[in-house]
Amino acid sequence: MGLFRSSEILGIADSALEFALAASEEAHPNEYMGMLRGEEASNLGLAEDGTVLSEVLVVPGTKTNPVSAEFKPINTPNDLSAAGSIHSHPNGVLRPSAADRSTFSRNHVHIIVGAPYGREDWQAFDRDGEPIDLPVLDVDPPEEEFFDFTQEDIDNELRGDEE
């Protein structure tokens, strides 16, 4: 059994795609690279079973230049919800290179965005490097709380109050 109830990728959140397009444009003329976090569709208010690519995870220590982007696997966020990868091709070519294909087996979906980084300048691929259709979904990823306590909790702890 996989991490998600259904390993089917239903689409990518509009906000995640917008982030990746903007980050790719900002990195130009170098490549941009990130991981894609998946979220259960039901957590996003969708009635379907499956996963939505909801967020782009930035990998610390990523090295880029105009023809490649790489990171050490040890720097990959320890995030079990990683469901794909995304990177840019500053030359605008929306086809995976041999190097791209060699990394595709690690996740469900891989997206390449190309210059000039507009709404139509991207393509999704499956594990085998074959193009796939990936709908852009208008969903809001759930807000994550970095801390699971409030100032009131801290004050109660300092006073020695019991819950």
TrEMBL record:
InterPro entries: JAB/MPN_dom-containing (IPR058877), MPN (IPR037518). PROSITE patterns: MPN. One of its GO terms (biological process) is proteolysis. Keywords: Proteasome. It holds the Pfam family Halo_JAB_MPN. Residues 10-131 form the MPN domain. GO terms for molecular function: metal ion binding; metallopeptidase activity. The keyword GTP-binding does not apply. GO terms for cellular component: proteasome complex. This is Proteasome lid subunit RPN8/RPN11, contains Jab1/MPN metalloenzyme (JAMM) motif. It comes from Halovenus aranensis.
